[in-house]
Design brief:
- There is one protein chain.
- The chain contains 10 helices and 14 strands.
- By secondary structure, it is α+β, with helices and mostly antiparallel strands.
- The chain folds into 3 domains: 47 residues; 117 residues, Uridine Diphospho-n-acetylenolpyruvylglucosamine Reductase, domain 3, CATH 3.30.465.10; 84 residues, CO dehydrogenase flavoprotein, C-terminal domain (Enolase-like, domain 1, 2-Layer Sandwich), CATH 3.30.390.50.
- The chain has a 5-stranded antiparallel beta sheet with strand order 4-5-10-6-7. Strands 11-12-13-14 form a 4-stranded antiparallel beta sheet, sandwiched between helices. A 3-stranded parallel beta sheet has the order 1-3-2, covered by helices on one side.
Amino acid sequence: MMPNELRYLRPDSAEEAVAVWSAHTGARYLAGGTEIHTMARRSASYPVSALIDIKRIAEASALSIAKGRLTLGAALPLSAIADDGAFPLLTATIRGIADRTTRNRLSIGGNIAGMLPYREAILPLLLADALCLSIAPGSGSEPPLRREWRLRERFDKRLLLDPGELILSFSLPLAFAALPWSHRRRTRTGPVDYPLATLCLVRESGGFLLGVSGAHPYPVFASGADGAAALKALGAPKGDQRATAEYRAALMETMLSSALEELS
């Protein structure tokens, strides 16, 4: 549960947000808060002393197109991005996550940087080679450090962030959003369930880009001259209490075949 003396803070700038984080041990950034609330309910020892609401920060709430790039603030609810529709593959992926009520609260930054292994919203951004804008607390008397980096460079099974680092936004070329794409998602019990496998496929001039969530312990992506090569590059899927590795492998082959047929 949440502690009795929990502080709630609403900074107006990114610099103020990381300064507040540095001043409070156990502080956590808050956008939608869905994962924070879930973890607090599950564990009485969940370490949180202050919630730093980032929705007033302009960069974190941006949804804009400029100079041929689409920018998505990290605090944007998934439903707002899906309803905008500027990146159709991301829209299709988001609409498979949870239900509408949850998507109205769940932020794209929270889905991508959260603790759950699925993080489906990251797939289209990895395929697009998206850029991230972040800010991290300075060391000692140094000011906060803003930096822009490729999402692929700091994604290794999960997003690798420095202590107190806050993701502000993601951006990608609009030209990528217009490429031919296909999306497939399969669950065990129904649409509002974690995926056995989610597949995102993009056809580009050099071949195919493929991203998969749910079939491995973390999101994975690969490229290949053809879809089969990209799928092979992902490696063997996992087996667990929800599905065997053999079932997931067969499922992904079926999903890929259907996706390739759609793009043919």
